[in-house]
Amino acid sequence: MSLKLLVITILYAVTSALAQTHAWCDPDTPRCFQAIESSDLTIAAAFSNSTTATDFVGEIISPVSNKWVGVSLGSRMTNNLVVVVGPSSPTAFVASARMSSGFQPSMVYPIAKITQLSGSRTNATHWKYVFRCERCLSWTDFTGTPHTVHPKSQVQAVTWGTTAQPSNPNFGFSIPDTKLLFALDVASARTANYSSYF
Ligand code: HEM
Ligand SMILES: *[C@@H]1O[C@H](CO)[C@@H](O)[C@H](O)[C@H]1NC(C)=O
Ligand SMILES: *[C@@H]1O[C@H](CO)[C@@H](O)[C@H](O)[C@H]1NC(C)=O
Ligand SMILES: *[C@@H]1O[C@H](CO)[C@@H](O)[C@H](O)[C@H]1NC(C)=O
């Protein structure tokens, strides 16, 4: 086990040490989320108040130096649904749902559907991608094991890279060297206004 993996494993075990999301409203659109703000990134999520819903709305704000950002909806990379997105031009984004069975480039997970929402844009310093992810709150991994995003709180992982401009949903990228784990307060991210978000 590499030192990095050991450190991450220990961090995961001591969940109280994890960064926690807080209430955050996008200053440019009437959407409020639970978000983590770290490493000049904002990773935000909002959920329906229905606990049987299978979709969520997410927002990723990143410095333009990052060509892509990936968010694992579970605490680990393998066997979890990972949303990967980055700008393909100054006005367009490429986003995809991925899954990997091991420590290797992930494959597109075709069941999940990601739709870009209003407010997505790039300016001189940051890009911002707002999306709805449908059929994303539960998934079956390559071994047939089902996974769900916990209805109250979910540990997620985020990573990013400064190379590999996204060009298509299956674009490849190199092993990210920085990873951030955080606890998403799903219960507090629920909003009765959810359907107005898309
Ligand atoms: C794009 C989204 C990605 C996310 C969110 C992500 C997240 C993570 C996390 C949380 C871990 C540590 C825990 C675990 O899963 O075992 C990990 C480990 C690892 N990941 Fe990823 N990863 C991503 C992409 C990639 C890609 C594209 C590669 C390879 C091409 C890769 C290669 C590895 C390797 C080799 C490890 C083993 C631990 C290490 O030595 O750092 N990852 N990843
Ligand atoms: C660019 O976008 C970022 C992230 O939304 C924002 O904080 C910043 O104020 C924007 N810059 C300008 C000049 O509008
Ligand atoms: C969600 O909010 C709507 C509108 O306020 C309400 O009608 C509905 O009963 C709520 N559902 C749950 C599960 O709380
Ligand atoms: C829901 O939307 C209404 C109308 O836009 C607004 O007045 C209210 O503050 C919103 N509530 C939440 C929890 O976002």
From TrEMBL:
Top-level taxon in the UniProt lineage: Eukaryota
Organism (species): Serendipita vermifera MAFF 305830
Gene3D superfamilies: Cellobiose dehydrogenase, cytochrome domain
Pfam families tied to this protein: CDH-cyt
Domain Cellobiose dehydrogenase-like cytochrome residue range list: 24-195
Signal peptide segment: 1-19
Keyword Signal listed: yes
Protein name: Iron reductase domain protein
Keywords linked to the UniProt accession: Signal
